[in-house]
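Quick entry, no commentary yet.
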Amino acid sequence: MEKREIIGILLIAVVASTVVTYHIQGASEQAIEVLEEKIPERVPAGEKTTHELSFSLVLRRSVESLIMDFDCLFNATAREGEPTKDVEDAVQLITGLFEAMNAPYTEEEIEVEGGTGTLYDFSDGFSAVAPNLSVISSTTIYSIIEIEGRKQAFRGVSDFFSNRNFSLDSITLSKNEVPETYLTQQAGEAQAQGKPAIMKAPLLGRKEYKANEEDDRISARLVVNSIGVPGHNGIMEVLRLTVDGENQRSQGFFISK
């Protein structure tokens, strides 16, 4: 065998070994694995029915910080004229004001079934100048979604669900099967069961877990009561997962009326 052939074989072996090593390291560096995403197909407004949204994940390596961040947006697509113009104009106006004031906001890509979109989050900037309880009831989140060339517009709140005190019966946040449950204040349920009221759940729908170990399991369960849900033309529930300051996943889930 010639020297050139031997060198060639060695180079191929080195490259193959590098590819295998990279693949193994890449798999091991994956921080989270989503175990369950349960979303109702529809949540009709004003009906005496309940609907469960639940999410669970497992950590595949130790992380210092994991943030689950929920947003609830309502379809605001115009039926006449330019379908997304109103939301795009609002985003442009607020973005200009925030940049002039050097106020924080985020713009990020999100995934939805069959398409992608852009999410604009102004909640941190509004929180700096307004009480947090007013921020969760104010429109601070906007999104433009495109599916098969068709655009849709959404706007809503940075919270577990819109109008949480009336639309949610309960919020349960768990780490390794240890739950934190918050109940609606309606009919005094929270006080009667010795649980914190739903307005005591983390503000802005944002829950951070610290000092997390490999195989830790994190979950969230929201029970929506349709009687407190306002009329709508579709809802997009968004879940963003951030690990040690880096976004790992931003996913929008559609719920029809």
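second:
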Amino acid sequence: MRAEILQPIYYKIGSLVRDLGGTVRDREITFLETDPEARLMFEQVRLLNEAAAVTQILARTNGVHPVVAYTELCRLIGQLAIFGPDRRIPELSEYDHDNLGGCFFELKRILDYLLNMIGADRKFQQRPFGGHGLQMRVEMEEPWLAPGWQMFVGVESNLVSGEVIGLLTSGQMNMKIASSDRVEEVYALGHRGMVFRYEPQPPRVLPVTKKDTYFSIERSPDEWPFVQRTRRLAIRLNERLLDGDLEGKRDVMIRGQPGKQPVMRFTLYIVPPKG
């Protein structure tokens, strides 16, 4: 039951918390938010955090009695039902100790349905780059590889946008974008890699703050097949201009003037095709 029911539910909730929670953080959405769409996202993350706390214990603890797990999953359905089309709980089966598989799989089906409703109307997807050796990497989902999906690298920084553009496009940072298994060769040999350009007018669905600068990414025919195979995109920067290592980090610290430590944080944004 734990491997087939509880752990998949926990992993799915955790993935939603990471994706939606990252958006709430990056857009600086708070309890005082007045925009309806942003407020909905905030409330979804709040309930998902509660759900993640409960399902983490259920998924990782040995010896949890089935009736306890069943009760907690029913509680989650009640919390998440407001995000379903009917805005109320569906009919729930009674707990049956002689048919645990049947009643638990029914709860999982309902939870999967409700969780799929959360964020379903989001007009973009996002995922943060994280440090791996000298690279900043991000895992891509299979649907994002389909034609028509637009890709952008968003750079959040304490530098003004013009300084970010200058550092990343003038050759100072020698930024290269390619699949994780190709980017070192691309960087070492001075190849172009995936073509990226500053995007002064990103799609309106993307979050825009004074800290954000966007670069569009083209599906370069020489490099895109490697990304499709690995489903992993990587950024390589001039390590001589980095202040500290990247391993396991989100923030890229750059050598700067005394009293001013430039910091950049990279996020992949995916915008689906219209219609």
